[in-house]
C-alpha cells in the first residue's frame, strides 16, 4: 500500500496532491490547536492517551541524569526498535 501511494503521489501535480490529502478525513477528533483553546486540547490528549497504547512506541523511561544511557539505548534499538526514548520528569516536580 505504501509503495503504491508513493508512486502515485510522485507523479501527481502538487496542487492535486494537496487537494487529495486535504480531503482525507481522520478517524479521530481534534489533536492540535495552534491558537486559542490550548488547554482543551491537552485535556483531550490526556483523556485519549491510555487508549493509544503509547508504550509500544517508546522505550523505557530515563531520568535526566541518565541521558547517556538513553542515547545509548536509542542508538542500539536499530531500525525496528523503539521510536523514541522518554525522560521521566515526575521526580523533578516539587
Write up what this structure looks like.
The chain is 44% helix and 10% strand. The model has no long low-confidence stretch (mean pLDDT 76). The chain is built from 4 helices and 2 strands; from the N terminus they run H-H-H-E-H-E. Strand 1 (58-62), helix 4 and strand 2 form a beta-alpha-beta unit. The chain has 94 residues and is mainly alpha-helical. The chain is extended. A two-stranded parallel sheet has the order 1-2.
Q: Helical residue percent? A: 40-55%
- Gross morphology: extended
Q: How widely separated are the two ends?
A: 49 Å
* Mean of residue pLDDT values: 76
Strand content: 5-15%
> Radius of gyration, Cα only, in angstroms?
19 Å
- The number of strands is 2
Classify the secondary structure makeup into a structural class: mainly alpha
The helix tally amounts to: 4
Could you describe the largest sheet, including whether it forms a barrel?
Answer: 2 strands, parallel
**H/E series:** HHHEHE
